[in-house]
Structure formats: structure tokens, C-alpha cells
Amino acid sequence: MKSLDITKLSDEELVSKIVEKNDTHLFAVLYDRYAGVVYNKCYGFSKNKEEAQDLTHDVFILLFGKLRTFKGKSKFSTWLYSFTYNFCVNYVQRNKEKRKEKVTVVTDQIKENSNEDEIDDATLFELKSDKLAKALEIIAASEKMILLMKYQDDMSIKDISITLDLGESAVKMRLKRAKGKVIKAYNEL
User: Which CATH class is domain 8-97?
Assistant: First the structure.
């Protein structure tokens, strides 16, 4: 009988075997594949290395118990991304005094935009990063999440739609509203 090389299994096959056998050794392979990605996402929410490591550890502990809820309707990596995002959003909501988002947009000037219906992506990118971080703390965690998915993680509308299990038009509307709220919060600071 030929030995199975577990490193060559797809994510979905690996998850199936982990669930079937409740095997922590197989789970370690999954951990090795995704620990870096999960850590980066957790770091984006915490902005602290030790806290991000703790959050990553917590995500994987919770993940081991929740793997059987993965139904294969999307790629495992997409499901894990959503799982991690939800975990981090819940963490932010529980720890409001510690929440800080990773902000990658930096410029020197803000363009005044009084008409929220005409908000474009360029307006968001012109916000000063420190003030933008404060504005992001003011808006709801779900609004921050969708903005970070689009602008920090560079996800397409379709990818966000799949991750959040929403229609593409709903994603566009939520992005528009979230952009409007963060710009309003920014202008009020």
C-alpha cells in the first residue's frame, strides 16, 4: 500500500480528512499553510505583534472545532479568510479601547467633498492616515471590514461578495455607505 503524501492534498481534501479522523497532525499541515496569512490579517486589526500572535493562535483553536462546518461551497482559503475576518471584527467589538486598523493610505492633503453621492476612491486615498485611522475607529466594525477588504486586501467586488455571502450590488452599496461614513467621520475630527 502506497503512503499518502499529505502535503500534496488540496485544502479541501485535507479539511475532509481532518474532520473525518479528528487528526491534530493533519491540522498542523493546514496550520503551516495558513498561519502567515491569518497572522497578517490579525496584525492588521491589532497592530501589535504579540497580540496578533495570540489572535492567530485563538483563530486556529476555534477553527479546529469549526472545521466540520466548512461545506465546500467556496474555496477553503476564502472560507478561512471570512472566518478570520469575523473573528477579528468580533475581537475589535469586544476590545474597543484596543482597536486599531492597519491603514495603508497616506497623503498630505484632504480633498473636501461635501456631496456624499459623488464619493470616489481617490477621495479615500487622499485622507491623512493618522486621522483616517481615528475615523475608522468611529464607524461600525462591519463597515471597516468591507473597506479593509476592498482597499487594504485589494479584493474585488466579486471576491467580497463570495466572502460575505452577499450579492454584488449589496457589496457596492455597503462600500458606498461605508466610504460616506468614514469621510463624514474624518471631516468631523
Answer: mainly alpha
